[in-house]
Each structure stands twice: as structure tokens, then as C-alpha cells.
């Protein structure tokens, strides 16, 4: 029989689960040759995507300003994870593209996330994990959410 739960515990447990997954991912990414990748960089690389994106698009996808996205892109460029290039469809804009190093970090992340999910399934049981994921899909926005965690917490 489960102990009595309180409403304030749910967001804390969800956040703790999120943090444990993200922290473990980054420990393993560091072990696999990507020690400088931080959560914000991973989210930005996801926002850039395989086809690339402008800084404005990256900002919109992350829920941050173009300037904030530009700073993250600058850091990704300095680390060798992204490059800016002329957009072949519009000479007035720059396109941000992932380098092979950036794509490698995303591929490795996908494999690590699968392993972490398997660990959670072994701990709580695959049926319970599937039910948890299905329930979260029902109560979270279908169109995504802003990843501007720092701005959200900072007010």
C-alpha cells in the first residue's frame, strides 16, 4: 500500500527524475569524449536539428531570445559542435549546422537515454514505466514546451 502523497511532491519527484537522467547522461557523455557538453547545449543541438536552423528558429524552439540562442550557438561553435553557414535558400540569413562532432554527441545521447530507460524499466518494471510515460503524455502539452528552464526559474 502506497503512503499518502502530497501535491507538492509530484513536481519535485518529476524534477528529481529529470535531473537524475540528465546528470547521468552528461556523466556518460563525458566518459565517451564529450566532457564539455552541458544540458543547454544538448537542447540547443536538438533545436538546430539535422537540417540546421537559423538563430531565430533555435531561439523560438527553445523559448529564448535570438540573442540568448546566439550566445549558446557561439559556444557550440567554439567547442566544434556547430558551424554557421550561408543559407542556400536565403542569402540574407545564416544557417546553423551541426558538425560531425555535434551529430556524434546526439547519437551517443540517444543510446545513453535508451540505456537509462532500460535501467528505469528494470527498477520499476516495464509495465509501470510504460504507464508512467503514457500518463505523462496525456497531461503534458502535445505541442511541446519551452526549454528556457533558467529563465523560468529566474522569473
UniProtKB/TrEMBL annotation:
Pfam families: MarR_2. Residues 1-141 form the HTH marR-type domain. GO terms for biological process: response to stress. Signal peptide: none annotated. One of its GO terms (molecular function) is DNA-binding transcription factor activity. PANTHER family: MARR FAMILY REGULATORY PROTEIN, TRANSCRIPTIONAL REGULATOR, MARR FAMILY. This is MarR family transcriptional regulator.
Amino acid at each position: 500500500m502506497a503512503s499518502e502523497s502530497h501535491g507538492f511532491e509530484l513536481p519535485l519527484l518529476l524534477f528529481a527524475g529529470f535531473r537524475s537522467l540528465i546528470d547521468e547522461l552528461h556523466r556518460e557523455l563525458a566518459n565517451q569524449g564529450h566532457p564539455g557538453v552541458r544540458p543547454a547545449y544538448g537542447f540547443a543541438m536538438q533545436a538546430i536539428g539535422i537540417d540546421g536552423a537559423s538563430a531565430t528558429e533555435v531561439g523560438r524552439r527553445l523559448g529564448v531570445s535570438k540573442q540568448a540562442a546566439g550566445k549558446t550557438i557561439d559556444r557550440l561553435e567554439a567547442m566544434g559542435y556547430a558551424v554557421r553557414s550561408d543559407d542556400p535558400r536565403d542569402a540574407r540569413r545564416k544557417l546553423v549546422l551541426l558538425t560531425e562532432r555535434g551529430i556524434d554527441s546526439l547519437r551517443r545521447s540517444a543510446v545513453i537515454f535508451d540505456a537509462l530507460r532500460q535501467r528505469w524499466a528494470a527498477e520499476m518494471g516495464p509495465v509501470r514505466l510504460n504507464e508512467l510515460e503514457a500518463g505523462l503524455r496525456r497531461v503534458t502539452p502535445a505541442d511541446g514546451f519551452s526549454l528556457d528552464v533558467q529563465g523560468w526559474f529566474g522569473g
